[in-house]
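ARCHIVE CARD
Drawer: 12
Card no.: 0347
Subject: one protein chain, sequence and derived structure
Cross-reference: see card 0346
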Amino acid sequence: MATAPDRTDLWHFELEGHAGLGSLTGYTVRAVDGRLGRVLRTVDDVSTGLLVVNTGPWFFGRLPAVPAGLIAGVDDACNTVQLHCGKQRLRRAPEYSADSAEAFAGYREKTGRYFDDAPGSDRHPG
């Protein structure tokens, strides 16, 4: 199982033995409190890594985007991505928008503030 190094960057996760986040497409995503859905697509560039997750009806038509820094680990034997946070925290996160460069920049800023608001930030274990 690949594990997350100690980091402070919400947008990056070092994957050992993978070509990049795109190799996680189709993997099951598990939050600390249960199954979230499956990786539908990814954004994997120098400044931003995230997983767009198909949750089925649970998010009511919304595809949540999970910043790569929330990944706790990857289990290739089970094709599973484990996250550091819970489903409700992700449900309340800012809605993903990449309609334009300005919309994406706004999403990154709001999401960074959202996950840094809580004491002991959700993206860091413990």
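Annotation on reverse: The chain is about 15% helix and 30% strand. Residues 2-7, 119-126 have pLDDT under 50 and may be disordered.
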